[in-house]
Every structure is written in C-alpha cells, then in structure tokens.
Amino acid sequence: MDVVEVITIMEGKDESSKRRPKSLSLKDVQALFRPFQIVEAIFVLTRYQIKGNLVVQNSLFYNIFSGIFGISLTACLVFVNLQSSYAEVLTGLDFVKFFCDVQEMLLLSVGNLISYVTNVIKAPSNVLLPSITQNLCEIICLHGQGHIFKKFVFINWVWVVYSVLSEGLWIIIFKYAFHNLFEVDQVVSFIIYIIYDTHVLYGASIIKLMRIALQMWINDARKSDFSSDSEKEDYWNNMFAVYMEIFDAYKTVADAFHPAILFYYIKILDNTIFSIYLRVEIGKLDTEDSFIKLLAITLVSLCWLYKDLLIMITFSVMCEKFYTAMREAKSICSQLIASKRSS
Known about the structure:
By secondary structure, the protein is mainly α. The protein has 13 helices and two strands, in the order αααββαααααααααα. A two-stranded antiparallel sheet has the order 1-2.
C-alpha cells in the first residue's frame, strides 16, 4: 500500500468514527456483556468504570483492594486444600492426592495472578473495550441488524449460567465419587474456575461481534465496484477507515485477553493429565468395585473437562471465522489497491 494511501486511510478512520451517529450509549452497549461483568465483579476483577458517557480506569484504591482480595483468596485456597490433604506419613493414595493438590494450588495461584494482570494491570487496553464495542454495534445498527443484540445477550447469559451450573454439578459429582479423599470445603473451593471460563467467553463474545461487523463490511464491498471517480474515492476511503477500525479493535482485544486465553489452554492440559493420573492410581488400589463402575465414575467425574473443551472449541471456532473474514477483507483491499494503481 502506498504511503499516501495509508495516510488517507488513517485520517479517514478517525473522521469516520467521529461522524458516525451514536445511537447507543456506552451503558447500552455494555449491557451486551453484563453476564461476564457480573462474574468479574463478584471476584473483584472489574475491568473499568463507566461514568456518564465516559470510560475511566478503576481507582487506585480498587486496584489495591482487588490485589489484596486475590492474594487472600489464593491463600485461602492453599490453606483449605493442602490442610485437608496433609498427613504425617504420606504413602500410597495419600501421597498421590497431596501431589495433585500441590499441582492444583500452583495452577490456581498462577491463574489468579493472570486474572489480576488481565483485568487490572492491562487497564490501558481494557478501557478501550467499551468504545470499541460501541463502534462495532453502530456498524451493525447502520445495516439494520440491531435486532441481533437481544439474541446476543441471551446467548451470553446462557453461557454464564452453563458455566456456573456445570461447575456446581461437577462439585457434587466429584464429592460423591471421591468422598473418601476430598473434604466438602476443598471441593467447593474449585468454584474459582468459573472466572477462568468467563475470561474466555468474554473474549469469544467480542470476537463474534467483530466478525459480524466485518462480514457486513465484506458484503458491502462485494456490492461495490472499484471505479476511481471522486465519489467512489470517498466511499472507499470510508470503507478502508471502517476496516482499519475493526482491525485495531482486534489488536486491542487480543492484547487484553491473550494471557487469560493462553492460561486456559494450559489449565485444560494440566488438569487433564493430573485428573487421569489420580483416577488411575485410585483404580489400582480399588479392588472392590468393578472395572465398569470405575470407568463410569471416571467418565462422569470428568464433566468439567467436557465443559472446558466446549468453551475452548467455541472460542476457536469464533476465532477461525473471524480470521477467515479478515483474509477475505484483506483480499478485497488488495484488489482495490491494484485497481487504483492501474487506473
């Protein structure tokens, strides 16, 4: 792309965003993500504050309180889990359980730290999210598709409820399946995993919104020719501006959510390995129950894994659809530039 073309596009980008009518307030837009924000607020991990029609970073007091809460929560988890698994002599299954508990606490400690970094330390990226989503919603509304927001909110609520209920169901099943090994307070402490689900679902939801807006851009571009008259020149400059707006939105979202997404992958792999290890060791020592019963208990007690995989697959599908749309948009931009140079 020529330097002159880049300057024209970037200037048009700011003007396009300013000229676009704001039919939705920031609070209206954030209602789309209310389910995720409620969960984050419960864990004292609010990303930003909206005052009037302004987005501001959290106060220093809130950030300090959030850090203290995270440290206290981690310390409580470590105490509850390691105290219940400690014994003077760790042999056999007691040692296996203690080893798995130590691994679990290390993982949760890292997870809580990453949650703090993602939601609090990355405030410069987080405060841009409301205006980004507002612009995306305006693009969608200008195409007469504002009705999709109700479905969007409903799906987000379904995901959060599914995460909470799945975690609760897993706690009940796990306590029943391994009641001789785990205390109630230890198992209940695993409710912390809901916040990790929320990070991924929040990111997937914004990516879905970006993909919808980008697909509308592609549909508009397909209907237009690449002629070089002055009216078309202004039209395509505005189109480029919208494209760059969506692309910058993607970079901001990637920066804000990348640590939490990476941790989620690691968490699934780590927990899967140690869960299988624990169940294999239990199976070796359990000579009373039949193989079929042990297998059934194992498969049912891994319901957390099915939930995590579903969330991760959903996130991956959202990303793949967005990347496919980005490649198509890039191809359209390349065709336009080639048309300009040949004219």
